[in-house]
Amino acid sequence: MKIFSSLSLFVLIGTCATQKYTTKIKNIKDSIQLVDSTLIIKYANTITTDEFSKHLYTYASDDFEGRKTGEPGQKKAVEFLKTYYINENIESAYGDDNYFQTIPADFFSNTNIKSSENVLAFIEGSEKPDEIIIVSAHLDHLGISDDGHINYGADDDGSGTVALMEMAQAFTMAKKDGYGPKRSILFLHLTAEEIGKRGSEYYVQNPVFPLENTIANLNIDMIGRVDDIHKNNKNYIYLIGSDRLSKELHYISEKVNNAYFNIDLDYRYNVEGEKNRYYSRSDHYNFAKNGIPVIFYFNGEHNDYHLPTDTPDKIEYELLKKRTKLIFATTWQLANQEHTLVTDENNELLK
Ligand SMILES: [Zn+2]
Q: Strand (E) positions, the chain?
């Protein structure tokens, strides 16, 4: 299967009078120095399939009733996350034992949606604590269908949820050993994605850390399954948005993958004008709209998408682990590389 690339597009249109665009891109690629290879592998390897399945069989169980925004199942989900972070000694973004950003019911105007919560766990950077990398996944799902079936949402987005939990744990282990991130990392579990990305909309309107200091958002929405296109090559993940605001982010992501994982990064849904419009369909979009470079990680739709049959037994745990490790390593690079990630607007190498 041919992998489409949006890169060829900007190579073609980007020619400049002073220096060829291809040369500028090459300079960006050459400027990226991977950091801490040994440490990245060591702590990425603390992420295990056993923990994924343990968490996911709870998170996508009957008990959580499909996690509909504002409903009792969603409240169980946020309590579950809070308890996890407390037990793991991972701090809240508020510096106390409140992990919730409460969204009042008013915000969901003209609906019968009740108040809801984003969950924010935080690891403060050791050298540049004001610079924030946000790793996000939505915590809500569709709830119970009219016919009484629970929409378990194991992939959507239980997979992203447990990925955040495991990454936060791995970064915390590193920190205990003296290898904490230089920049800060916010693990942001967003509510109300399924009703229009409202949790991320609320966050960008009420950011806990200034958006101008938020250097990137890596958003995960469904990374535990395989779509029909990739039945015969499961070693893939769709990346959407990575080159839109920061070519440097795009090439960091590629370089990290090439160095450690060799996953097929499939960009077909990143093509401008692509009919599914995934770039605007999950929470990262609210960050991108604010000029923050994003990567959206996604396995594509499958036969159980938005159905009660999206259950934890169908998750490909080895794949979920490998994809999470890629996101972990990319986050580590962004948090620890010498210079701060730049947007194309501010990139001297593109001038
Ligand atoms: Zn989703």
A: 91-92, 100-103, 116-123, 128-138, 183-190, 214-220, 236-240, 264-266, 294-298
Measure 345 CA to ligand 1 centroid, in angstroms. Answer: 30
Name the pairing type of β-strands 236-240 and 264-266: parallel
Look at residue 343 in the predicted model and tell me its pLDDT.
97
**301 CA distance to ligand 1 middle (Å):** 10
Give distance in angstroms: CA of 138 to centre of ligand 1. Answer: 7
Task: Tell me the CA–centroid distance for residue 278 and ligand 1, in Å.
Answer: 11
Phi/psi of residue 92, each to 5°? Answer: -85, 160
Predicted TM-score of the model (pTM): 0.93
Ligand 1: centre distance to CA 238 (Å) = 14
Is 70 exceeded by the pLDDT of residue 252? yes
- Model pLDDT, residue 18: 65
Q: What is the predicted pLDDT for the residue at 241?
A: 97
- Kindly list the structural domains of the chain, giving each domain's residue range(s) and its CATH number in brackets, ordered by start: 7-350 (3.40.630.10)
What are the two backbone dihedrals, phi and then psi, of residue 179, each rounded to the nearest 5 degrees? -120, 40
Q: What is the CA angle 268-308-110, rounded to 5?
A: 85
